Amino acid sequence: MASFKKLNYKALTRTGVELTEDNIYWKKYTSPVLVKEFGAIDYIDFSPVEPYNFAVTCSVRLQVYNPITKLVTKTFSKFKEAAYGGCFRKDGKLLCVGGEEAVVRLFNVNSNNMLRLFSGHSAAVHRTFFTADDVHIASFSDDKTVRLWDIPSEKQVTSYNDHTEYIRAGATNPVSTDIILSGGYDKYIHMYDTRTNKKAFSVNNDAPVESLLFLPTGGIFLAAGGTDIKVYDAFMRGRLLAKITQHHKTVTCLKVTSNGDRILSGSLDKHVKIYDAGTYNTLHTLDYPNAVLSIGISANNHTIVAGMVDGLISVRKREEDAEDKVKMNHKKRLSHKCVSEALPPSNTTKQQNCRDILAKYDVCLRKFEYSKALDCVMVNYVSNKHPHVTVALMQELIRRQGLERALAGRDNKSLVNIIKFLNKHIGNIHFGPTLIEVTDLLLDVYEDHLDELGEEPRKMFTIMAQKLQEEIQLMMSLAQLQGAVEAILSAAELTTSTAETASSSGTKNNQSMEPSDAAQTERDLVLSIT
């Protein structure tokens, strides 16, 4: 006895972004937890030591959050006006912060006490950073100066005033204790060497500088200005190495992962882009509900925090590997359960008996129970996730001339599900021909029984009529467009052939004139001799 031949279907390949290891890695970050603050989030910085708390500078206070509980653990509120640029020292024990009061404050993280107050600026200080030796602080101010402060003596070491506009960006070299980078709204980037107290070089960034970032090697720095991110070589006096143009609005902040192989950029276009630090190619994109002003990433790369213009703080935490395995196993069990109910199992079970191998709809087909087979592929999991299986079974029923029997005598609920499926996929280029035939047969079956149907099936038939009318209008528009394109191509072809004909006729005329010209020359020669 011949064995039963299972339903043959072909899964359609999905077009889209290629799934890479980076996409898989960054998609493991959980859904964001949103925390509301009062005012725009100016700056976010992570502590380099465990438990990797992060400091948020917002309005008139500086707050330290726990990344696990998302709760505030420390609050520094000794500000009369707005605070800016709170930054951790690399041992995680001290915090420096600027503000509208034109001073730089130094706090002890553990005791909440203010240890130092550095005065000297005459305008708001927007960014402050510790140098690599941990005993100096560089500050960048709207008074167009860059100043270096000594922590033990609480005195100014040096000052630079080469900028002609506000300074809103700065960076200290992670390797050298003597290199400071500043960027201003005058579109210039200046690098200073504190050993000589002079400017090492300047770079015209062609846009106001919003953020500066040194890569961990200290030899390359990035500048965010306008919609571009430019990469410069510090050893070659600011030679431009690359230009990244992935945002369509102003880039506001830059960060680098702890190992230095990935770069993050936030923008007013509500996106955070992640790049490869070697090729500068975009690897992944994170979306946010509002314009991003600041971002931070923990030293273990497990937490990403973004601050937005409306005061929202978005905290994304990466799932642990153990949790990943548990969730993956859970998903596999659910998937196996659904597939075992609707789809045929894999070929590894060939040695099992036929009843275990066949899917439910194949079992029904084998028994010629066409109505039950159609019900099996109309369940939500199959019709939504694998519509090609549903269409393949409809094709098989058409081939067996059993579709009319499968469609007839249905209750309102099952009939509505079938009509919904037809309305959803009838415009699909792959399913259209089969579903049009199914729709035609469905209308023939229920044409004389519309009055006996419930209100919902009649409503779905009305929607089907509208959908078919839309498809007809679309086909007519495409036919008109095709006719217009063919007319343009025909006119272009006619113009080309006319030009070629004129060119060939001109050549012939030139060739025909050549003998007469020769005869005229001969006559002129004879007359001259005479």
The low-pLDDT segments are 335-340, 342-356, 511-516, 525-530
Oligomer designation: single chain
Enumerate how many helices there are, as a single number.
11
- Measured between the Cα atoms of the first and last residue, the distance is 114 Å
Radius of gyration: 36 Å
Placed side by side, the strands forming the largest sheet appear as 1-28-27-26
The proportion of residues forming helix, as a percent range, comes to 25-40%
Strand content: 25-35%
Structure summary, number of beta strands? 28
Shape: elongated
- Helix and strand content put the structural class at alpha+beta
Largest sheet: 4 strands, antiparallel
Q: Determine the mean pLDDT.
A: 84
